[in-house]
């Protein structure tokens, strides 16, 4: 159920004093609005929400928080770029290590082939 309470006043568009009401509905609890003082059937429908004004200190706090977040994003992007460079370097080191392992395998296979060949040749003599 909607409930309203009347408090301060201001002038509406036609110059009449509009009443201020505060809603207590679940969808707009505590929201204030101004309404034409006459009944709906003789009203031209003036109704305006009261805009909340924020203090300069509150806006300043929000702006400094925003700046802090922007700086943190910049730092995180820089850290991300550094990590990307490290990954590329590690991939290069890994590739070099894999090449050494491959060369060692080829060397071992050739060594074993020569060993088996010499062994077989010495047995055949």
From TrEMBL:
It holds the Pfam family Zn_ribbon_GRF. One of its GO terms (molecular function) is zinc ion binding. Residues 59-93 form a coiled coil. Keywords: Coiled coil, Membrane, Metal-binding, Transmembrane, Transmembrane helix, Zinc, Zinc-finger. It comes from the Eukaryota. The keyword Coiled coil applies. This is GRF-type domain-containing protein. It comes from Anisodus acutangulus.
